[in-house]
Amino acid sequence: MSELHGKVIIVTGAGSGIGRETALLLAVQGAFIVAADFNEIAAKEVVSLIEAASGTADFYKADVSKGDEVKGLIDWTVERFGTLNGIFNNAGIGLVKPFLEMDPESYHRVINVNQHGVYYGMYYAAKKMVELQVEGTIVNTASIYGTMAAVGSFNYNAAKAAVVMMTKSGALELAEHGIRVAGVAPGFIDTPILGGNEERKNRLAAQHMRGKLIQPKKVASVVAFLFSEGATAINGQTIPVDDGYLSFKK
Ligand SMILES: NC(=O)c1ccc[n+]([C@@H]2O[C@H](COP(=O)([O-])OP(=O)(O)OC[C@H]3O[C@@H](n4cnc5c(N)ncnc54)[C@H](O)[C@@H]3O)[C@@H](O)[C@H]2O)c1
């Protein structure tokens, strides 16, 4: 029996890309999955795929940028499955603009989802785990852009750098409750968030050591490891899943 068997894990942004592949993999490894997304149709599709693979899952519609909706997600999960062992705070968006056009609306839109969404997930999940006396695991999706600047990404850089530090700071404060916090920092992953411009995608692909975009399954497998017993000594760290992106310059 898999070590994740019966563990109740929430995946935000489960409707697409990294979240979708991670929800599927964790379910195949035996976890009970709550597929959370503001795109209800996409989240339902993932649940159907999990059930078709003999896994256990349900969906919950939530906008992670809204604290009350994330609190609702956590409460509902415990009502539905009886406990909460983990959350993958992964939902995110991009909105690329030069800094001098980075008006407050464009700035806050990305901060609200990518930074505050992760905070709400960490906060409400950790409070519930402490209440239930569960020594759970929190995994956050940061980015290579949490540690390196990119043109047009002031909002995204700021949010992902915050995720890297919230992962450390949260790990430090939650350690006394037995709760572990870790993160992944993906390079460029072949998901809909990249948009459809093939020329741009080829340019981004060339920045990895092996010259290709990374498949979302490759991030999912690292996230699944972070939830596993084998990763219990990884705490506060954000692991690059970037095919060397951060390690060289062309
Ligand atoms: N694809 C990449 O190259 C890449 C690189 C580094 C980091 N990331 C990060 O990985 C995470 C997942 O991205 P992806 O590439 O799988 O993108 P994606 O667009 O394929 O999936 C994102 C999912 O999040 C959902 N979502 C967006 N905003 C939401 C909100 N406010 N509330 C609830 N759900 C919401 C979307 O509906 C979608 O299903 C994001 O945090 C992103 O910043 C992606």
Task: Provide structural commentary.
By secondary structure, the protein is of the alpha/beta class. It has one domain (8-187, 217-230): Rossmann fold. Helices cover 44% and strands 15% of the residues. The protein has seven helices and seven strands. It has helices at 17-28, 40-52, 67-81, 104-132, 154-174, 198-205, 216-227, and strands at 8-12, 32-37, 56-61, 86-89, 137-141, 180-186, 238-241. Strands 3-2-1-4-5-6-7 form a seven-stranded parallel sheet, sandwiched between helices. Helix 4 (104-132) links the parallel strand 4 and strand 5 (137-141). The longest helix is centred in the middle third of the chain and has 29 residues, at 104-132. The protein starts with 7 loop residues before the first strand and ends in a 9-residue tail after the last strand. The model has no long low-confidence stretch (mean pLDDT 97). The site of nicotinamide-adenine-dinucleotide (NAD) has 30 residues, from helix 1 and helix 4.
